[in-house]
Specification:
The protein is mostly helical and 322 residues long. Helix content is 74%, strand content 0%. Helix 7 runs parallel beside helix 13.
Length: 322
């Protein structure tokens, strides 16, 4: 239905040639924009319903008070998956975790997963790559958070936190719940959930359109085989090179997934493309600057290096199984 509308709009209304570079690019832009924004709104609404009934603030308090024999890494990673943050906007909540006494490794599990897996990424992955690859990506992002947080926790890195963290008294930066879950009927919550979901869509709309616009230009005008030549399976260094190139960049899932779609369409192995995306979305120089408030540069380097290593491993794994 969406493709039919996009074809009608671009080729009949706008009068562009179907096989031209411009026609192909404009068609890609309208089709992906409509599809992704609809999915984003629907999944944001679903996550709003889940968050309304799931006491996130209680999970944070529970993690700080109980010994869970490793399960806390999984819970923190799942918490990261249901919080709609990019790598920079998840840093303030990470700081609140550290100040609240949650073990450093557990907070790293949250920080790793939060920008990688959220309703924006899930909605766009579903619309771009389908259910199978979306599930693999989501599970991989959660597992990466669990393993990365566990490994970093074993390094005993608390001495590399800044004096600001060590001396400040514990406090909570989380917002209080808007309602008591068991007292407010669902129909009364629904308008707020829809309003918040629309707010999420508006908040990432510019990133979505810019990302799809770049992807559309690449889709219509970049020659076939251009990316495949430099990022193919025959180049053993393609995955680590993609991660190294991705780390200095900064974008959220809304901006980079349309570009990854074009990478794959142009012949780049999906593992290499996803490794590039994970590096762009999960690690960035602005994030490193914000983390300097709570970490020394040595700890930031260890964090970035460890996560980059696991992303490279995942990239090779994706190329092997997909």
């Amino acid at each position: 239905m969406i493709q039919v509308f996009a074809d009608w709009l671009v080729y009949s209304v706008f009068g562009l040639e179907e096989k031209s570079h411009l026609g192909s690019a404009v068609n890609f832009f309208f089709y992906d924009s409509i599809k992704i924004l609809i999915l984003l709104f629907l999944i944001s609404s679903l996550m709003g319903i889940i968050n309304a009934y799931f006491p996130i603030d209680k999970l944070r308090n529970y993690l700080s008070k109980h010994k869970l024999y490793g399960l806390e890494y999984l819970l923190a990673s799942l918490f990261g998956a249901v919080t709609p943050f990019c790598s920079c906007s998840s840093v303030p909540l990470f700081i609140g975790f550290v100040k609240g006494g949650i073990p450093l490794g557990v907070t790293f599990s949250f920080l790793i997963t939060s920008p990688l897996v959220n309703e924006v990424a899930v909605a766009m992955f579903l619309g771009t790559f389908g259910l199978r690859i979306t599930l693999i990506y989501v599970l991989s992002g959660i597992i990466l958070g669990v393993i990365g947080g566990y490994v970093l926790g074993k390094f005993k890195l608390d001495n590399l936190l800044t004096p600001w963290v060590k001396n400040i008294e514990a406090s909570s930066n989380l917002e209080t719940a808007k309602w008591e879950g068991e007292k407010t009927p669902f129909l009364k919550r629904l308008p707020t959930i829809i309003h918040d979901s629309w707010g999420i869509v508006k908040g990432v709309l510019l990133y979505v359109l810019i990302g799809i616009g770049i992807g559309a230009a690449m889709h219509g005008f970049v020659p076939e085989g251009f990316f495949e030549h430099y990022m193919s399976n025959t180049n053993w260094f393609a995955v680590p090179a993609s991660v190294i190139l991705g780390v200095p960049m900064y974008a959220n899932a809304a901006g980079v997934i349309p570009i990854i779609e074009v990478f794959v369409a142009k012949g780049v192995p999906i593992g290499t493309a996803l490794a590039f995306m994970m590096a762009v979305v999960g690690l960035s120089l602005p994030e490193a600057t914000m983390l300097k408030k709570v970490m020394t540069w040595k700890l930031i380097g260890i964090f970035f290096g460890t996560v980059s290593f696991f992303i490279i491993i995942l990239g090779y794994f994706f190329n092997w199984v997909l």
